[in-house]
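The passage that follows is intended for readers who have already worked through the single-chain material. We present the inputs for a multi-component assembly, then the predicted structure in tokenized form, and finally a short commentary. You are encouraged to pause after the input and sketch how you expect the pieces to fit together before reading on.
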Amino acid sequence: MGRTPCCEKEAGLKKGPWTPEEDQKLLAFIEQHGHGCWRSLPAKAGLRRCGKSCRLRWTNYLRPDIKRGKFTLQEEQTIIQLHALLGNRWSAIATHLPKRTDNEIKNYWNTHLKKRLAKMGIDPVTHKPRADAGGAGAAASGARYRAAAHLSHTAQWESARLEAEARLAREAKLRALASPPPPPAPAASGLESPTSTLSFSESALFAGAGHDDALGAARAPAVLTLRSYGEAFGEQHNFGDDADAPGGFLAGVLLDCAVAGAEQRFAAASADASVGEQQQEEDKGYWSSILNMVNSSMSSSSSSLTSEAVTDPAMYLPAAAEF
DNA sequence: AAGGAGATCAACCGCCGTATT
DNA sequence: AAATACGGCGGTTGATCTCCT
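Having made your guess, compare it with the prediction:
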């Protein structure tokens, strides 16, 4: 009954940090044979490790397509936005950050971003200004609370959509394996995602931006979030009145948090002489870039993001601080 | 220079959903 | 249908590094 017995509990397996020799063995084996079944890999590669440990070492460290080092501002923004949408679903967030591992993103969130948001008076879990923060937080508008009330619903909506995307992708892959490949699709028709609210032209942007099609499609919701920033900004300023539009409310919360947090932080910084000028400049640049994204999408369209807006690389660059 | 505190991050642990027998 | 393995995920830990006193 069942599969062959697992030998994972086998005694004498090594734990702890990997040595360069072990890395070399694992790399050499995978380069030559691929990883195949992780369970049987250690024995074949001559490693006294469990398969799980090998898989982890490969996916988090040895894989050649891993980018290491400091996170860029754009990456930070993406993480914050996606965390607001998806919560602690690090693997889902990692699919939108090419070459970053879920473990790295999780670590970065826990050691940097979470603290930074908390310091700014934003609850890193709800992405709302903390009730006990006072100041700008206490002065939150009715719209902010209205937005908060919809947060859960919106996140669930987006989460369900992402799951549907994944399911459809799996099914498509299975179909592709079972039948000969279709002729190349026309450049811009008939490829709309059945679940995404993103137009093909928007999805295609990623595919044409140096990523493969699958990755481009996977990143599409990130664009959705950026567009939502624009929608929310319009909503907050009476540009639109579609209160039930998915994404808009959530983005409203984020934008509101960003502004309130920045205001509060700057006020605190002014009062507290211990906060250095450099830190203030960093914060200004950080939050103004978020606002810049909003403005970029606003200027191209008040209700939706055009392809021109997204293809403009300047949209992802830090804006000059104009506080 | 030394020691303590805090920050960082690689790796482990335990759980869960899916695949396999 | 049930039992079991496998792969993946998120939470947590602990060794190491860096900064501060």
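Commentary: The mean pLDDT of chain A is 58. The longest helix of chain A spans residues 142-178. How closely did your sketch match?
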